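Hey L., structure's done. Input below.
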Amino acid sequence: MRTIIQALGVLVASLVATSALAQTAPLKPTEGDYTIRDFKFHDGESLPELKLHYRTLGTAKRDAAGHVINAVLILHGTGGTGAQFLRPQFADVLFKPGGLLDPAKYYIILPDGIGHGASSKPSDGLRAKFPKYDYDDMVAAQHALVKDGLKVDHLRLILGTSMGCMHIFVWGETYVDYADALMPLACQTVPLAGRNRMWRHMIIEAIKADPSWMGGDYKTQPMAGLRTAEDLLIVAGTSPLPLQRDHPTRDSADAITDETFNKAVGNLDANDLIYQVDASRTYDPHPNLERITVPVMWINSGDDFINPPELGIAEREVGRMPKATFVLIPAGLDTHGHGTHTWAALWQDRLAALLQASAR
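Output:
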């Protein structure tokens, strides 16, 4: 009996260890590229080939009629890529076994938008001659990837952060009912004006004012302009409460500023960055919000520099969508400013409610 008990103990310990490894093992997405031939941009420009890079987790499942029933599209923010959602603050909360977006249950699609990551972008060679894409173009390309490239004719959910949040409202109005539910995080539904446009304009002009800019045909990156641009991005993306707690002295604040810049600068290209922050210039879903009739869970945070809550825009606009809910996460020591959108532990309960409300 003692031998049997000992053997059972070993077996249980092995199962526990295996389960722990399954919880912590790094996700290994499938990566690929989809090329759209003769892609037409909304301003009349075109490219003979437009490449969209993507990552997927899980497997598409179809109903008896052949329609995909478990696909989730997740859209990144300005300057990001689909890979950002593999970071622990997002993936370890949502993609873990038994998580709300467990890849064993869902087919997760993580594209790099036009101008970002490994998708077609100015720094591939065209530089400032690359077509001046906007959010409508980016969403059209995402739709082509999903529908034609991955053969997904319906989405269970679209979740997006920052720029991806704005893309959701474009998706919802352009491809009505393509998704069962929408979860936009950290954005507004009006044109980018006021302070939100001002800091973007500052980034663009700082780069162009650098003597090394040379109209976009620079020999080396215009580092003076990029320094100003990245500093603005740092300010826009952070939260005052945790920064004051974590960096209460001048030296500490200076050190984290330099450390953050030094980490980011190696991945910056001036043309790419200008295109990325200017792609929002035509964004305006405001006139057609009533087209969005599926359940929407719209979340902003109280310490968001880019979408300050005192504007009251979301509270005013949310009622125009019949099944939309707006939630403002209060600022606190555990929030992350604009970046709160990627810390899933702060809003996963709202995602659970959305999935339940939109279940068929």
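Strands lie at 30-40, 46-57, 71-75, 107-111, 157-161, 182-185, 296-301, 324-329. Residues 195-277 form a domain with the Rna Polymerase Sigma Factor; Chain: A fold (CATH 1.10.1740.110).

-- N.
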